[in-house]
Amino acid sequence: MADFTGNHILSVNQFDREAIDKIFTVADSMAPYAKRQKRTEVLNGAILGNLFFEPSTRTRVSFGTAFNLLGGEVRETTGMDNSALAKGESLYDTARVLSGYSDIIAMRHPFAGSVAEFAEGSRVPVINGGDGANEHPTQALLDLFTIKRELEYHGKGIDGLHIAMIGDLRYGRTVHSLCKLLCLYKDIHFTLISPNELGMPQPIIDTVANAGHKLTITEQLEGNMDADICYQTRIQEERFPSQDEANKYRGKFRLNQDIYTKHFQSKTVIMHPLPRDSRVEANELDNDLNLNPKLAIFRQTDNGVLVRMALFALTLGVDHLVSKYERDV
Ligand code: CP
């Protein structure tokens, strides 16, 4: 996928390393606009349809912010109940209609495959903001962008990375997408830590194994790990068959400063797609890590704006015009 213009972004399977390098180069160039040091109106007059049929803070708001920072306007629909989907309208019809009102659409939906189904009816590019337990491609891109930036600090690249993924690897769509993206690099060591029942889906394990990467699968944190990245996840309660089933796993995968010191080295960067469940019975990423300089969770959220600005600029074919349409700050 070297040419982004007019294309949907539905899965990380679309990307090769050349495409990722392009996204990251454009994302880097967006920093002065995101920091309000410069202003551009390259998307003046353009409209983003921001459709979120499942709860979201970061993805929804950062898509909107990214579009606004490029000079465009945002129309939001949030919650299934506020849409004619609640009256039985199909995703195809909804897409035909809403794509007549927008230049591009970002969408989150609770069912796997639903965003791709919607895209079939859309007359404008659609970006997947998360479809059930399937994929979250823009989160994976911002995670990879963050990994790249964090490792650069240590003079390292992504090739040769050791990443530990912890928690609900079955329903956590961000780790599915990130695993697939990392498979494009060389000599990655994946340490997957979860109970068997919440393990990484077999097709993703097969993708990692077939790409020749090193896999360590375990049910709990053991010893002192030489991981560059510790990627913690939330138990995705909303995707379990029942609350009782979800409760079995709540609080099993806590990370706090003591556990970090015992199992990781001081170089290990701590990531989490957020939200972290701060309720006492879960608390998978303790506040006592907030002052740990290796906690990258809020650098991830900031990077999300840069990556989403890059995706809008590339998909709408204006990446080369951003500086031409600069205005006074
Ligand atoms: N990481 C993420 O998808 O967060 P939100 O659910 O808040 O969008």
Question: Any descriptors?
Answer:
single chain; 329 residues; alpha/beta; Rossmann fold; 2 domains; five-stranded parallel β-sheet; four-stranded parallel β-sheet; 11 helices; 11 strands; binds phosphoric acid mono(formamide)ester
For this structure, what is the CATH homologous superfamily of the largest domain?
Answer: Aspartate/ornithine carbamoyltransferase
Strand order in the largest sheet: 8-7-6-9-10
User: Biggest β-sheet: count, sense, barrel?
Assistant: 5 strands, parallel
H/E element string? Answer: HHEEHEHEHEHEHEHEEHHEHE
Q: Find the count of extended strands (DSSP E, 2+ residues).
A: 11
Spatial gap, N to C terminus? 34 Å
Instruction: Give the proportion of residues in helices.
Output: 25-40%
Shape descriptor reads globular
Total count of domains: 2
Bound molecules: phosphoric acid mono(formamide)ester
CATH top level of the largest domain is Alpha Beta
Mean pLDDT: 95
Low-confidence segments, ≥5 residues, pLDDT <50? none
Estimated structural class: alpha/beta
CA radius of gyration: 20 Å
Percent of residues in beta strands: 15-25%
CATH architecture assignment name of the largest domain: 3-Layer(aba) Sandwich
CATH topology of the largest domain: Rossmann fold
Instruction: Please work out how many helical segments DSSP would assign.
Output: 11
Protein name: Aspartate carbamoyltransferase
Family: Belongs to the aspartate/ornithine carbamoyltransferase superfamily. ATCase family.
Enzyme class: transferase
Domain Aspartate/ornithine carbamoyltransferase carbamoyl-P binding: 8-148
